[in-house]
Structures are given as structure tokens and as C-alpha cells.
Amino acid sequence: MGLVAALRLAEAGIPVIVVEAEAAIQEDLRASTWHPPTLDMLDRHGLAEPLITQGLITPTWQVRLHNTGERAEFDLGVLKDDTRHPYRLQCEQYRLGRLIVERLRSDPRVDLRFSTRLAGLEQRREGVRAIVDDGGGVRAIDVAWLVAADGARSTVRERLGIALEGETYPETTILATTRFPFHDHLAGLSNVNYVWADWGTFSLLRLPRVWRVSLYPDEGETIEQALTPEAIERKLQRIVPKAGGYEVLEVRPYRIHRRIVANYRQGRVVLAGDAAHLNSPSGGMGMNGGIHDAFNLTDKLIDVLRGRAGDDLIDLYARQRRPVALEEILKQADRNRARMQERDPERRRQALAELQAIAADPVRARTHILKSSMIEGLRQAAAIE
User: Which residues are registered as beta bridge partners of 229?
Assistant: First the structure.
């Protein structure tokens, strides 16, 4: 999100300093689903096509019953008149970061500082003084505005004493990757699948070279026990029995949150992405929502910095994006999570039947997919003045 904001500001002719604590773009397990409007936005900067060439175009997504293979499938082709990209793209988040960093390094308007941590923050009447530590000393940076896109553990948010209000869900998700071709063994599988099984729930997300599998500890199993190679193997074998065992490439546990700050702006500091809101990854809305924040915010910052609008225009960013995060991202992701956490077989069947009815009705399907693809939320935000 921070890199997207930096690119947009720089391409508008505005000098930018990017401060990143890590030494390089991290390639750990993060988001991998790109929604249609996000691709439309990135296309405006020539970033969609190179991302698409590295990813997997995914025209449908499913909710499935594992034992029977019954499923509700949603076809994003119904959005052909609403977007230039009527599909999801499955591609690792870090690939966009690489593309943007490559471009920023050659832009004289951008001062890109890796291995640099925020050590202090002082709000001033005409801007912000950030104290940073690059390992070679502590320095002050004076800027007109500071965009805090520093993630769930935002140092900026902590320094300002801004609370991230909400809840942490009780379960821990375990993300595992494997090259095993689930699509050759499970009939009719999409590239994005949310699955109910007799023994619990899981999801299967396909990338060009691997499948990502979201798993959960069994009842009575601690997270430490669930993370052992033996437990991961047992869970994968329940999905598709495999002689010789699975090759598991990466494993990462993470907690799921539903949290949001009360205000996205404090003085000349503005929060975006995970620094402002956290949601369940079910539905793939977190990264996309952060990029939508960055586009909305930079549209307004450019006008303010060019003298075409007053500072109060930044308040419009908060008025537009916070309700969408609360109503269209956090609540929808919460509903997605609750549906997949359902354990009662009859309620599962009722939920599946309702989803199948929606998918089979062109009008209802389009309405549902406009929301799940985040297009409706963007339209709602644009209508707020």
C-alpha cells in the first residue's frame, strides 16, 4: 500500500520518501488474490499486465462440500460490463512490490530507504518530523504529510496512541503450501475454493506453481501440536490421500482480526491499509482494500499538495474509506468466515443451497459478485461527499 501510494505521488511529480524497516521486499506468505477493480486501478499505471503474466487468471470461485463435491460456483464473467478484468488473479503480493520498487529506483523524485526504522514522530503545524534510524545513525526527516501504510503492527499508529478497536477471533489459521496438484484429484475444482469437510473446514487457493492450503487445529489440538510436520501431513492426507506423503514448502500460522481505527487521520498523518483496518482473509479483501485506500488517498493528496484543494479534502478520504472498510470489508469478511466455520451439517447444506440459488440467478449472482469483488464498495465510497 505504501509503495502504491509512493508510485502514484511520484508519477504526479511529487517528491516522496519511502521508509521501510526491512532490507528488501519480503517474499513470505501474504495475500495472493487480486480483485477486478484493483487490477483496473493498477492498469492505469501499467502494472496490471506484468502482474497478470506472473499470475493465474481465475474466472470462478467456489464454496464446496468436500465429501460429495457439491458446490456453488460464482462466475466473474457477469462483470464484463463493470470492469476490464472480469476475473480474480492469483498472484503473490510480493510480485507487485518488486514491480513498483524497480520503477521507483529509477525515479529521481523518490528517496527509497530500506533497512530504516521509525524511531520517533512529531506533529508540526505545517507537517511532520519523523526520526528514523538506518543503522548508521538517527536522522530527522521533515515532510508535509506522512502516510502510515506500515501494516497490522503499525509503528506510526502506536507512536500516535491510536487504538485499533475490535476483536481477535479465537481460531488460528495455518497456511501451508505444496506443489501437489489438487486440481487433478478433486473434480471441478476452481482456483479459489472454500471447503466444508466432515472434520472441519479448509480452503484451497491455486497459484502458478503451488497450492496454498488454509488449515485449522483439530478440536483439542494446540497450535504447537497443529504446526508439527506430522499434524500438517495428517490434515493434507484427509483432503486427498497421497502415497509417500506431501512435500510441504512453507508453513505459517496467523491469527485473524476484525479491527478498525476510529479515524484515519490525525493531523498531517494519515493511515491506510492494515494500519487502519484488519479483517479476516476470507474473500481476499485485505490487500485489495489497502490498495483502494492508497488510490483514494493519493487522489486527494495530489490536489492538496498542488494547491487545488484545502487540507480538509483529506477528511473526505476518511469519510469515504472508513465506512466501506467497516461495512463492506470487515463485515463481509466476517460473514464469509462465519459461514465457513459452521459445523452443523444441516446448516451447511442450507447455506450451500442458498449460494447455489444465488449463483443460478443472473441478477442475484451479479449483485453478489459486485459486492464480493469489492466493486460495490468502491461505488458507495465515491458517492460519499
Answer: none
